[in-house]
Every structure is written in C-alpha cells, then in structure tokens.
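Tokens in:
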C-alpha cells in the first residue's frame, strides 16, 4: 500500500480472492471473484489505501472494482452503469484518479474515476452505423506529471450482419492528448506509421515512445505537443523496454544465423 502498512495479494483459482495482510501479520480477504478470476493487471493501490481491481467473468466480460482496504471493506463496481465492455485501466501518477476504457458497438469511451468512485466520461468516439463501423479507444497512458493523458483512437471496419459494406466513417488511428486541467484535446494522425501501442511517456512530459507495425514492429518517438514522429528502431520482434533513466531501449530481433 502507499503508506507501507499493508500488503495485498491474489490467491486461489476460479474464483480468485484478494487478501490484505498488515505488517503485524493479521490478514483478511477483502474481495472474492464472483465467477472466475482476478484479471491482469491484477490490482493497483490508490493514495487513499483503496484498491482498483479487474475481475474476469466466464462470458469474457470484465468488471472494474474500487475496494476500500480499510476496516469497512466498502467496494464499488466502477463499470456497473456502463453498457459497454471494459477494456483496460491506468492509474494517475499521484494515485488520486484512474482512467479506464470501455468500448461498445456504437461508441468508445475514456472514463475517469476519483478515489471515491465518482466516474465521468473524458472522451468518446461515436459512429452512426455500428453495423459496419467499429469505434475504438486503446492504450491510455498518463504523463509523468499527471497533467496529460494520451491514447490511441479511431473508427475501424466492423463485421456487419452477415454481409459486408465498407464503413463510410473510417478514421485513424490517431494519437489523442488531453490536457487534464482544461480538458482540451489535441489529435494527431499516426496512421501512416500504424502506431498500435503507446509504450511509455518519457520524463520530459513531451516525448512518447510508441510501437508501429508495418510488416515488422517499429519503435518511434512521438512529440505529444506537435505530433511529430521520429523513427528510432526498425524491425523488432517485441515490445520495447525502456531503462529507468531512459538512456536505453531493450528489444529483440530475428536474425538470419547463416548470414
């Protein structure tokens, strides 16, 4: 926990449980999955000693919970009022709020919750024809100072109802950057580089390391203020890992041993 007074861990399998143990050794379960398991990433602490937890159900749906790890053991499902499929969450650097993504047939939403479980929609992408068009929001990441939130979004081709017609609303993928103080959003086209993953926002609060795909994965540096994209490394076979001091990037490549 942020104050180092508790340790939380998941145990069991189908259904999983979340247990909290104090430094004196006292322990208790604060959550039990209703059907299946606690999903990855399993859980994270907020600054008020509450836990954000992802639960997976047998029907491939997921729920997002906010659980008080204190004595009252209150818990709240953050996704209870949503008619969408929960996708992923990201905790703000100060641990006072979190972003989570929920995608539906006709819209994709980026939501924000505070430590009390009060949720609002920060950004949404909607379509007029959900039969052939599929909106999406992916991979939300916070800047190190917590002042900005970046994500990938757009409108892709949907499956249709047994037939096929090209979506007339196709767009993106684009990089979106939200100023959390003003809620103003800037967007930058990244489709030419086919950016599919935002790996990490660097300590300058400007540069974002991203991964694009064009036959092979390529690593880029993206300026979050201008949208300028600078190639770093081509033809990699893994997601990159950035060293703690941001001096190195590790990755692996396939090589022809006969050459």
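Residues out:
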């Amino acid at each position: 926990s942020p104050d180092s007074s508790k340790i939380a861990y998941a145990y069991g399998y189908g259904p999983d449980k979340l247990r909290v143990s104090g430094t004196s050794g006292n322990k208790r379960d604060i959550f039990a999955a209703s059907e299946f398991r606690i999903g990855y990433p399993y859980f994270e602490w907020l600054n008020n000693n509450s836990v954000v937890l992802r639960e997976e159900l047998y029907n491939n749906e997921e729920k997002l919970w906010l659980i008080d790890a204190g004595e009252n053991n209150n818990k709240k499902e953050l996704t209870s009022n949503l008619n969408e499929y929960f996708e992923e969450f990201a905790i703000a650097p100060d641990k006072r709020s979190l972003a989570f993504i929920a995608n539906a047939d006709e819209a994709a939403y980026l939501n924000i919750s505070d430590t009390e479980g009060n949720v609002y929609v920060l950004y949404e992408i909607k379509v007029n024809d959900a039969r052939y068009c599929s909106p999406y929001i992916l991979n939300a990441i916070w800047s190190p100072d917590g002042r900005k939130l970046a994500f990938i979004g757009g409108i892709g081709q949907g499956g249709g109802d047994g037939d096929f017609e090209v979506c007339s609303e196709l767009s993106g993928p684009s990089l979106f950057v939200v100023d959390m103080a003003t809620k103003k959003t800037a967007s930058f086209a990244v489709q030419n580089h086919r950016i599919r993953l935002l790996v990490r926002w660097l300590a300058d609060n400007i540069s974002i390391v991203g991964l694009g795909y064009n036959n092979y994965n390529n690593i880029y540096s993206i300026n979050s203020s201008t949208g300028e994209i600078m190639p770093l490394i081509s033809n990699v076979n893994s997601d990159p890992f950035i060293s703690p001091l941001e001096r190195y990037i590790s990755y692996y490549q396939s090589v022809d041993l006969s050459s």
